[in-house]
Amino acid sequence: MKIQESGEMYLETILVLSREKANVRAIDIALHKGYSKPSVSRAMKLLKDANYIEINEEGHIKLTPEGRKIAETIYERHVTLTNYFVQLGVPKEIASEDACKIEHVISETTFESLKKQMTNE
Q1: How far apart are CA 75 and CA 115, in angstroms?
Q2: For the chain, how many structural domains are there in total?
Q3: Are residues 56 and 79 both part of a single domain?
Q4: Phi, psi torsion values for 63, nearest 5 degrees
Q5: 20 to 30 A from 104, CA-CA: which of 16, 26, 83, 112?
Q6: For 92-106, how does the pLDDT look when each residue is reduced to its tens digit (9 = 90+)?
């Protein structure tokens, strides 16, 4: 199943938050992203049904291996693209915003070529 951009963004957010705190809950995601709790709850149900996350009885959210793979891929793209744009002279905040838009649509071929160019500089 192909995951939508919004799902990728949620998985990436769960990954980032899980690196900051032991237990991630829907309210943490809502506060981090500025989304409503009902919107986050609906998204978590969809991600759980697709087997990208697990939610225990306390409401703690954990990435499944499949969800973690997607989240790490998107996060790597975000960090790499942000760094690339900053190297080009783009202010960090704008670079991060642009990376967030591009990370979901850039092809694997183009991304790998960009990474290769960055390491050869």
Answers
A1: 14
A2: 2
A3: no
A4: -75, 140
A5: 26
A6: 999 999 999 999 899
